[in-house]
Design goal:
CATH topology of the largest domain in chain A: Aspartate Aminotransferase, domain 2
CATH superfamily of the largest domain in chain A: Type I PLP-dependent aspartate aminotransferase-like (Major domain)
Number of helices of chain B: 12
CATH superfamily of chain B: Alpha/Beta hydrolase fold, catalytic domain
Strand order of the largest sheet of chain A: 1-7-6-5-4-2-3
Largest interface: A-B, 58 and 46 residues
CATH class of chain B: Alpha Beta
CATH class of the largest domain in chain A: Alpha Beta
Number of helices of chain A: 18
Helix content of chain A: 25-40%
Low-confidence stretches of chain B: none
Largest sheet of chain B: 8 strands, mixed
Mean pLDDT of chain A: 94
Helix content of chain B: 40-55%
Largest sheet of chain A: 7 strands, mixed
Shape of chain B: globular
Low-confidence stretches of chain A: none
CATH architecture of the largest domain in chain A: 3-Layer(aba) Sandwich
Strand content of chain A: 5-15%
Distance between the termini of chain A: 74 Å
Radius of gyration of chain B: 17 Å
Order of helices and strands of chain A: HHHEHEHEHEHEHEEHHHHHEHEHEEHEHH
CATH architecture of chain B: 3-Layer(aba) Sandwich
Number of domains of chain B: 1
Oligomer: heterodimer
Structural class of chain A: alpha/beta
Mean pLDDT of chain B: 96
Radius of gyration of chain A: 23 Å
Strand content of chain B: 15-25%
């Protein structure tokens, strides 16, 4: 072989499917236990007084109290960090607490965030109603309005937040472009990538600085356990400007520690844990961490099936007489189809929004009559789930907010499961028949 | 803290405590392309236990200004200048990988200034893989990926970081990419490859010396570390099983324990 064609050495670090099973855990350090042990304990013995002081001063790594860290939860944190390509992660009791801790680590009273308008309803309420009580204000921008993100940045803006694929309307935020806008302003981009999981998209590769997940969804995958996580990309320079004094200036809570100076690419996670988890305490139980780890072991296998079933359902719905419209990034005339091909090369996800002919009444009849699909306020279960957002997940929004968030009364949100595709379609036929004659067959 | 050496601003972590000239000084010297942050699980302990600590960013690395120094000899002289610049007459040196070459050379050149020497993942020479060297000098991120692969043992590859939630390989990779790869890693690798005086320098060292080596270290294997240690009179050697070249993070507690015992015995705090 000529020198020109010589391939050279290749990195042999473990790849995605291997990391899904192994990252974060070494059996020989845990009595040889092949499975990750569940450390069901509140606290951890100190070797002596000096050891205790060293742990409290962040001089040494280790566990003190399970509100702050736990060995089982730690395996989950490392595993997700490895899959995302991040430097560090902090697991929390839910996706919402991951978002809250992220904001509270980033912001102080008087700060401002620019936020995509198409988000899970609970997240909208956090940004619109709850954070202002802490003195943190937000400006909402429609996810496709890339220039709008730039215009909304103020002097006190500390970050941009968005879901890559908005819930429930499936509008994409142009992550690479929005990240440039954020970085030009010297602020981080925070992306909720719950819908994608790192199997479909690794936001750090497209400019995100912090990723949050509701692990409750596809990552855990089986609808059994609540969990969330924040993951740090490690590339954001907190010291580039004076916008983040709580990251860069001496922190009284740890003897004058500067998180950015001491921990660099893991500074945000260290602060979120040392301050946020210490003071707010939304910790993840080791049992739930273990359940999520169990789910992650089969993440790529499940996501392939979720995505193939979703694409089948898109075809089915597009051709159905009872369906007014279908929104999924795999549909060629979806406004973000090309962007989705670029950002989601392994599949466009299993969330479908569709409009049912007959409006709200038809939607209610459909929901009330499907038998296999479960009507509940979750997504990303192995089972197929449906909900009518205007009367469910987003029901606390007023009419104007619903419209701004891209919701309509005829919209059904479908989270496609991994059942046999024919059985899902047959179930939907029952729902559609009822929707065409809502008053005759409604079970209400 | 920031201070000036040869007209250029230098950053060094003081381990989270104010720099106090009344305490004995320990200087930590990082490896190729890396920064002061690799030492976080050793420096903070010493800073809280009676020492003044400087975990340096070499010129052109991390938060230090200037250009990367092109030879191990220049780096050794620079360490001596650091000691002068902060108003000390003596210090204890701790080096990792390339930092071992630098601290060996510095100790040989300035025997009156250096009181103890601690080497982690050290060898008398670190010849570079030609492909890796070429990638680094061309600024190819693949150089960092390869370095992270080869530099980590099982703890790095599987995980199990002593600090909950941190993932070794990605954190190390991000440190190595924090400045332009060809200007940091490329220059450092070339300096390592060019340096031939390690074994001769080692023979001149007459101060207490500790070598911490690791069985899974592919970059500076145990036999190379032992060869170096054998040349230093009275040198102590500690070997860590199931650990790679990044032992200061992969087995941070073990490294700290051995280092603490060695430094407190031979260079005690007041």
């Amino acid at each position: 072989m000529s020198d020109k064609n010589k391939k050279g050495p290749e990195s042999k670090t473990y790849k995605f499917d291997t990391l899904s099973l192994h990252a974060g855990y070494q059996p020989h350090k845990n009595a040889g236990s092949r499975q990750v042990p569940i450390y069901q304990t509140t606290s951890y013995l100190f070797d002596d007084v000096d050891h205790a002081a060293a742990l409290f001063n962040l001089e040494r790594g280790g566990h003190i109290y399970s509100r702050i860290s736990n060995p089982t939860v730690g395996v989950l944190e490392e595993r997700v960090a490895s899959l995302e390509g991040g430097t560090a992660a902090l697991a929390t009791s839910s996706g919402m607490s991951a978002i809250f801790l992220t904001v509270m680590t980033l912001c102080e009273a008087g700060d401002h965030l620019v936020v995509s308008s198409q988000l899970y309803g609970g997240t909208v309420n956090l940004f619109r109603l709850t954070l202002p009580k802490f003195g943190i204000k937000c400006t909402f921008v429609k996810p496709r309005d890339t220039e709008g993100f730039k215009k909304a940045i103020q002097k006190n803006t500390k970050g941009i937040f968005g879901e890559l694929v908005g819930n429930p309307g499936n509008e994409l935020m142009n992550m690479p472009e929005v990240s440039k806008i954020a970085h030009d302003a010297g602020i981080p981009l925070i992306v909720d990538a719950t819908y994608q999981t790192p199997y479909l998209c690794k936001p750090f590769e497209h400019g995100a600085d912090i990723v949050v997940h509701s692990l409750t969804k596809w990552m855990a995958g089986h609808g059994s356990s609540m969990a969330g996580i924040l993951v740090e990309g490690g590339n954001f320079d907190w010291m580039q400007n004076d916008k983040f004094p709580t990251m860069t200036k001496p922190y009284e809570g740890y003897h004058g520690l500067s998180f950015a100076e001491e921990f660099g690419p893991t500074a945000f996670t260290m602060k979120a844990r040392a301050e946020g988890m210490r003071d707010f305490g939304p910790c993840l139980s080791p049992q739930n961490a273990w359940n999520v780890l169990q789910g992650i072991e089969t993440l790529s296998v499940r996501m392939k099936k979720h995505c193939s079933n979703a694409e089948e359902m898109v075809k089915y719905l597009l051709g159905h007489e009872s369906v007014a419209w279908v929104s999924h990034p795999s549909v060629p005339d979806h406004p973000d189809h090309e962007l989705a091909k670029k950002l989601l090369p392994n599949g466009r996800g299993s969330m479908i929004a569709f409009g049912i002919k007959g409006g709200k009444d038809a939607g209610v009849a459909f929901i009330n009559n499907v038998k296999l699909a479960s009507h509940l306020a979750n997504v990303g279960d192995t089972r197929t789930l449906v909900i009518h957002p205007a009367s469910g997940t987003h029901s606390q929004m007023d009419e104007a907010t619903l419209k701004f968030a891209g919701l309509s009364h005829d919209m059904i949100r479908l989270s496609v499961g991994i059942e046999d595709i024919d059985d899902i379609k047959n179930d939907f036929e029952i729902g559609f028949r009822a929707a065409r004659k809502p008053r005759l067959v409604s079970n209400q | 803290m920031k201070f000036k050496v040869n007209g250029h601003e230098v950053f060094a972590s003081t381990g989270g405590r104010p720099f106090d000239k009344n305490k004995p000084l320990i200087i930590f010297v990082h490896g190729s392309g890396l920064t002061h942050m690799t030492w976080v699980l050793q420096t903070r302990y010493f800073a809280f236990h009676g020492y003044s600590v400087l975990a340096l960013d070499l010129p052109g690395h991390g938060l230090s200004s200037g250009k990367s120094l092109k030879s191990i000899e220049d780096m050794a002289d620079w360490i001596s200048s650091v000691i002068d610049s902060v108003g000390y007459k003596e210090a204890s040196l701790v080096g990792h990988s390339q930092g071992c070459l630098v601290t060996i050379e510095c100790t040989a050149r300035y025997p009156d200034k250096i009181k103890t020497l601690s080497l982690m993942g050290g060898a008398g020479a670190i010849p570079m893989n030609p492909d890796l060297l070429a990638l680094a000098e061309n600024g190819d991120p693949k150089a960092v990926d390869l370095m992270m692969d080869w530099a980590h043992g099982p703890a790095g590859h599987f995980g199990g970081h002593p600090v909950p939630g941190l993932y070794h390989i990605n954190t190390g990779g991000m440190l190595a990419k924090s400045r332009t790869i060809k200007d940091t890693l490329g220059v450092d690798f070339r300096a390592c490859d060019n340096y031939k005086n390690g074994f001769e320098a080692a023979k001149k060292i007459k101060i207490p010396t500790l070598s911490i080596l690791a069985t899974d270290d592919k970059m500076c294997p145990v036999k190379e570390g032992k060869k170096l240690a054998d040349l230093i009179e009275g040198s102590k050697v500690d070997i860590i099983d199931n650990c790679g070249h990044m032992m200061l993070l992969e087995e941070a507690d073990r490294v700290l324990k051995v280092l603490k015992n060695f430094i407190t015995a031979n260079f005690p705090a007041k």
